[in-house]
Write a structure and sequence with these properties.
The complex is a heterodimer of chains A (398) and B (752).
Chain A (H helix, E strand, L loop, with lengths): L17 H6 L4 H4 L2 H22 L3 H4 L5 H23 L1 H23 L3 E4 L2 E7 L2 E3 L1 H22 L8 H20 L3 H18 L3 H20 L5 H11 L10 H11 L12 H4 L11 H34 L3 H25 L17 H19 L6
Antiparallel strand pairs in A: 1-2, 2-3
Chain B lengths: L10 H31 L1 H12 E6 L6 E2 L5 E13 L1 H5 L6 H11 L3 H8 L19 E4 L4 H9 L7 E10 L9 H4 L2 E3 L2 H7 L11 E3 L2 H5 L1 H5 L3 E7 L5 E8 L6 E4 L3 H18 L3 E2 L4 E2 L4 E8 L5 E7 L13 H8 L10 H4 L9 H10 L8 E3 L2 E4 L2 E4 L7 E3 L1 H6 L3 H14 L12 H8 L21 H18 L6 H12 L5 H7 L10 H13 L2 E4 L3 E5 L6 E3 L3 E5 L4 H16 L18 E7 L7 E7 L3 E8 L4 H17 L39 H9 L12 H4 L11 H4 L4 H7 L1
Parallel strand pairs in B: 2-10
Antiparallel strand pairs in B: 1-8, 2-3, 3-4, 3-5, 6-7, 8-9, 10-20, 11-12, 13-14, 13-25, 15-18, 16-17, 19-22, 20-21, 23-24, 24-25
The chains are: A mainly alpha (398), B alpha+beta (752).
Chain lengths: 398, 752
């Protein structure tokens, strides 16, 4: 936590200098949620090891450097860590005022994806490539939807005008979420859509909006799924993934190949795994996208039940502490933001790990902190920053 | 954390937050449970599947061992063809997937680059031929017709041709050295079937999909030894099939060589003489049927008398075993197995059986002595033997007065044996037998090894048949319904037989025993059984299980597993009786039934012994048998539908002896021309590099043999049937009795 003294915490606690101030009672460092932070760091480091193991042999993508992905993963985590510190420094309340700008910016970016600036990678047009850097703006959309909806839903409640957000507000909030979701649907990025729907659900639940809205949304989600399938919004491969999920033995060399090989990799790990770098499924590159979406299979094979269980445990710690933060903060804005992040992390982790275990259909979603990928790494660390900020800035009993 | 802040929020939000928390934790719990299920519960299963993912086998077929004759001349070996192959795994490692290398290779081989590149692509639904249909890890053959020059070019510049090999590969070849094709003895190969693969999966010699398996003859009998063991290299591969490590490697063990007791030269002479004798027989007129002899099949066995080893074994009709190499064509297959083919695949020496005729008298003589009749006693050789209303005539109605058993053998007097057999039948109780009949004549047949396999090392040998009481009763049980249905008391010949059989076919009738004593009726023997019996008479009474395999020698010649002659038993004949028999059989050659064919034979130097036989088969011409032996060899020849034993086979058998001992037509012995005056004792030497020290063999030993005989004896014209040249003298008058034989006798005999 170097540099902790470089940012001012908005006026809580007595003013002291240097280390004393940092660790003083009610100081920033003391009020940070350390279990979340340490778990996130641990997950990122485990991720680095898994990404290295998965990519050291993949000469066709690592440009001959076995450490290519390792170094980049660590760099991404470092940048993410920096973004977290920046978020804490700014504070979620400051960000609240900037929400319109952030929202506009992120929507603009996903619109850019649909222009010639966008790039299609692995059948998904969700990349923005500029000057050697590639970005997935859809990752940031998740944050701005949370922040935007929270702002709209909480303003009048936090001001004490209302006990619950009224229908008009809810409608506005849904409209705010719907715009970027429609754009993402055009890519089409199925994973992000699913995460966004769950986020909206979590946000609405935690805002105290009427039950009708909650159930209505669930119904609309189901209807939307049917419509998407019927109207051929989805690509062939996306429908096939669901078919393969429904019937795992379907075409094990084709559609079902990913899931089949992923399950073999995890299953063969046993209790302690084969040891890092010794998994034959991983060394033999039988599982596609193993450094990104299927990174959990490396853990399953090489670290076994113990290592994969540890990842689940660390994710559990993050989510458990996040729930605590959501419950303990007094302002609805903070609660909603925390709940949105919980819904996001929980669903994304469940979908990602669930698909490698064969209990969820395949969708291109990274495992938070662990999967290789800059945009995702940045987004989840910003989310950690938001959670820390909510905790740090919670109004003390005053 | 110390202060629980007042949230000031409604319980609704609080409750919903708790719900979210529970939901989140249960999701994680689900993942944990599933993880446990996959990794701990079913972990072993997936571990197994994972290991199957990564190992690919490359199989190096073992070279099949050769089959050698007694001196090391290969009668079945492998032809090497230069095969140029490409390793896909190596080619794929190159920047352009090996295109440049393949183009260069096409230049060397004089092929189109495009064709070569197409040959190494893998077949799938979208890829038309040419493409590779086998395992992608197996080297893919580009051509099997490379010249040595091309192969050298590829090998010497191996750095220019990475992943390309030019290796000689083995293809089975039946070389027929000296024109000895030995077809039925060698057998043939055909590809392994799925069934066999599954069956042999867990044995110590599993099959490969590319394997050829011995289907008959020695190829089948010694398949396991000849086949060797294929080499298997297991590679660890990644998902694209790129090799990431070598897991395990078993070197191929080439198949062992089988050294046989066959002498290719003698084999050729035997084959030639059998064929020739049959051709001659077909020019002879059969007075009984009123047409020329058909001579439709035949066999000859040359055996080492002291060991039971087979020096030559020929069967007619025959075929070219090379027809099977590289997959048999439909046309060839029909020609070999169709109804019109007369079944050339059958080895008539071990799978052909017929009534032995008078050659059986060796058994009857032994039985008579066993039963207490003195060998040198006096037994009436009358011209006929009557039982009730039935008259059993001597072969040609001749009578010799009271003679010894030896003399009865020599002149082949049937009535002597009729009398003895009939006497024994009566002693055993006649048509109502005693509880424990002595059955000397039948027991002797079993003791001579008849009615069961000799145990020769060839598959599917038939047993022949001894028509004893046991057989009669079971045969009757199996057939009585049909007999009783079709039998008529006063019907046609066949109907009358059926009628009689229906009534008492389960009993040993007087006529049965009488017929049996001279090898007629229901008795069946195979040529190889006769060979074993007459070898035993020659060697002092030891009955050997005939063998063809002499030793199994590893490809490098280092381990030699000898196949020792196996003794099946002893003849139930005393030394004195054997001596008497020997003299009698020698008499057959000098003054008996075979004498007219062995005039001028140097009997004092190389004593020959013989017994002729002419067996009657209902509805067919007579089967000729000639059993002969010297102190070294036994030669049995039989030709179906060819007349008398001496008439049909005498010349041929004598010529085989001529070849073995170097005897010319006038009886002079030239040791230099002898092919095998004494049996081959030593095994051929096989060098550690696998090469075999084999003597040169002339183009056609049978022709050499004729050439060496013709100048001295100007009368022998190989193109003229033998029967026309040698006219019988007064000495062998008896052999001519065939002509005088009353045609109706057969019917009478069988009616008894």
């Amino acid at each position: 936590m170097t540099g902790a003294n470089n940012f001012s915490v908005s006026g809580y606690g007595p003013e002291r200098a240097g280390w004393t101030r940092l660790f003083a009672r009610d100081s920033l460092a003391r009020r940070l949620d350390w279990p979340i932070l340490l778990s996130a760091v641990a997950l990122s480091l485990i991720g680095a090891a898994l990404v290295y193991s998965a990519t050291r042999n993949r000469t066709e993508i690592n440009q001959g450097d076995p450490y290519y992905f390792l170094i980049r993963h660590l760099m991404n985590a470092g940048i993410g860590f920096g973004l977290m510190i920046g978020t804490i420094w700014l504070g979620h309340r400051t960000l609240r005022t900037a929400v319109p700008i952030l929202y506009g910016l992120s929507v603009f970016m996903i619109l850019l994806v649909l222009t010639p600036l966008g790039a299609t990678i692995n059948g998904q047009r969700n990349w923005l490539v500029a000057g050697g850097l590639s970005l997935q703006p859809a990752e940031f959309i998740k944050i701005t939807i949370i922040l935007g909806m929270a702002m709209l839903l909480a303003t009048r409640v936090d001001a004490g005008d209302k006990q619950y957000p009224d229908h008009r507000t809810v409608l506005q909030a849904l409209g705010l979420a719907a715009v970027p979701m429609m754009i993402v649907l055009l890519m089409p990025d199925l994973g992000t859509i699913m995460v966004a729907v769950v986020i909206v659900l979590g946000v609405l639940l935690s805002s105290g909006a009427s039950n009708r809205w909650v159930f209505g949304l669930i119904g609309a989600g189901a209807l939307g799924a049917v419509a998407a399938w019927r109207l051929h919004v989805l690509d062939e491969y996306q429908i096939n993934r669901f078919a393969a999920f429904a019937n795992p033995d379907l075409d094990p060399a084709g559609v079902g190949y990913n899931t089949n090989q992923a399950r073999i990799a995890i299953g063969s790990g046993g209790l302690f795994g084969t040891g890092l770098g010794h998994g034959s499924q991983t060394t033999g590159q039988f599982v596609p996208e193993q450094q990104t979406d299927f990174v959990f299979t490396v853990a399953g094979e090489e670290l076994g039940f113990v290592g994969a269980g540890l990842i689940l445990l660390l994710l559990g710690v993050v989510l458990w502490r996040a729930c605590r933060i959501a419950r303990e903060t007094t302002e609805l804005y903070g609660t909603i933001v925390a709940a949105g992040i919980i819904a996001w992390f929980a669903f994304q982790a469940f979908e990602n790990i669930g698909m490698t275990l064969g209990i969820m259909p395949v969708a291109g979603l990274p495992l938070p902190f662990v999967s290789y990928g800059g945009s995702s790494m940045f987004a989840v660390w910003v989310a950690i920053g938001l959670l820390q900020s909510i905790r740090v800035q919670r109004p003390m009993s005053a | 954390m110390t202060n629980i802040p007042e949230t000031g929020r409604t319980p609704r939000v609080q409750i919903r937050l708790v719900v979210i928390q529970i939901l989140v934790l249960s999701l994680l719990g689900t993942l944990g449970g599933r993880l446990w299920f996959l990794q701990i519960r079913n972990g072993d299963e997936y571990a197994k599947e994972a290991s199957g993912n990564h190992v690919q086998q490359v199989v190096q077929p073992a070279v099949r061992g050769s089959i050698l004759d007694a001196r090391g001349v290969p009668i079945a070996d492998n032809e090497t063809r230069l095969v140029v192959s490409a390793s896909r795994t190596d080619l794929l490692k190159m920047q352009d997937d090996g295109k440049a290398v393949l183009t260069k290779l096409a230049g060397v081989l004089g092929l189109k680059a495009e064709d070569v590149i197409q040959k190494v692509r893998l077949c799938d639904a979208k890829t038309p031929q040419p493409c590779w249909n086998g395992s992608p890890y197996q080297p893919i053959p580009i051509t099997d017709k490379a010249t040595p020059r091309q192969a050298l070019q590829i090998r010497e510049r191996s750095e220019d041709f990475p992943g390309i090999t030019a290796e000689p590969e083995a293809v089975r070849r039946y070389a027929a050295p000296g024109k000895a094709n030995t077809a039925q003895v060698l057998g043939y190969l055909s590809p392994v079937t799925d069934d066999e693969i599954t069956k042999a999966k867990d044995t110590d010699s599993p099959y490969l999909r590319s394997d050829q398996v011995g289907r008959s003859g020695l190829e089948r009998q010694y398949d396991k030894a000849l086949r060797g063991k294929a080499g298997v290299t297991r590679y660890e591969v990644d998902n694209l099939g790129r090799v990431i490590g070598k897991a395990k490697s078993d070197k191929a063990e080439p198949g062992a060589n089988l050294v046989t007791s066959i002498d290719a030269r003698v084999q050729r002479v035997a084959e030639y003489e059998l064929d020739y004798a049959m051709k001659v027989a077909r020019t002879q007129f059969d007075k009984i049927t009123g047409e020329n002899y058909k001579a439709d099949s035949g066999a000859v066995v040359v055996m080492e008398a002291k060991t039971g080893r087979v020096v030559a074994m020929a069967s007619q009709p025959t075929y070219d075993p090379n027809a099977w190499v590289g997959g048999i064509s439909g046309k060839d297959y029909t020609a070999l197995t169709g109804k019109k083919s007369n079944y050339p695949l059958l080895n008539r020496a071990t799978q052909g059986q017929s009534a032995p005729g008078s050659t059986f008298k060796v058994v009857s003589t032994a039985a008579a002595v066993e039963a207490g009749y003195a060998f040198d006693g006096h037994y009436p050789c009358t011209s006929s033997y009557s039982v009730g209303s039935q008259v059993f005539k001597n072969f040609e109605g001749e009578s010799f007065g009271p003679i010894s058993l030896g003399r009865a053998l020599e002149v082949s007097c049937d009535t002597v044996f009729y009398g003895l057999a009939d006497n024994e039948w009566k002693k055993d109780g006649g048509i109502n037998p005693k509880k424990t009949p002595k059955d000397f004549f039948y027991k002797a047949a079993h003791q001579f090894g008849l009615g069961k396999e000799t145990g020769i090392d060839l598959p599917n040998e038939v047993t022949g048949r001894v028509p004893d009481r046991h057989w009669k009763s079971s045969y009757w049980k199996a057939n009585k319904d049909a007999w009783c249905k079709s039998g008529k008391k006063n019907g046609s010949y066949v109907e009358r037989i059926a009628y009689e059989n229906c009534l008492e076919g389960n009993r040993m009738r007087e006529g049965d025993s009488i017929n049996y004593s001279i090898g007629q009726g229901d008795t069946l023997v195979t040529p190889v059984q006769e060979a074993a019996i007459y070898s035993a008479v020659s060697n002092g009474g030891t009955l050997y299980a005939p063998t063809i395999g002499k030793a199994i020698v590893s490809a490098d010649g280092r381990t030699v597993q000898e196949i020792k002659p196996k003794v099946n038993g002893k003849l139930p004949v005393s030394k004195a009786t054997l001596k008497g028999m020997n003299e009698a059989f020698a008499g057959v050659v000098t003054r008996g039934t075979a004498a007219w064919k062995f005039g001028g034979w140097p009997q004092d130097k190389i004593p020959l012994h013989a017994k002729t036989g002419t067996a009657e088969v209902y509805g067919k011409q007579t089967t000729s048998w000639l059993a002969t032996y010297s102190k070294d060899y036994t030669i049995i020849m039989t030709i179906s539908q060819a007349g008398t034993g001496s008439g049909a086979s005498g010349e041929a058998v004598r010529k085989i002896y001529n070849a073995l001992y170097g005897v010319s037509a006038d009886g002079a012995i030239d040791k230099k021309k002898a092919l095998l005056p004494t049996p081959q004792r030593s095994l051929p030497k096989i060098q550690t590099d696998g090469s075999i020290d084999a003597p040169a063999i002339s183009k056609d030993p049978a022709k050499d043999q004729q050439a060496s005989q013709a100048p001295k004896d100007g009368t022998t014209d190989p193109n003229l049937p033998a029967g026309t040249t040698a006219s019988p003298t007064a000495v062998n008058r008896v052999t001519r009795r065939h002509k005088a034989r009353p045609p109706k006798r057969r019917g009478k005999r069988i009616l008894t």
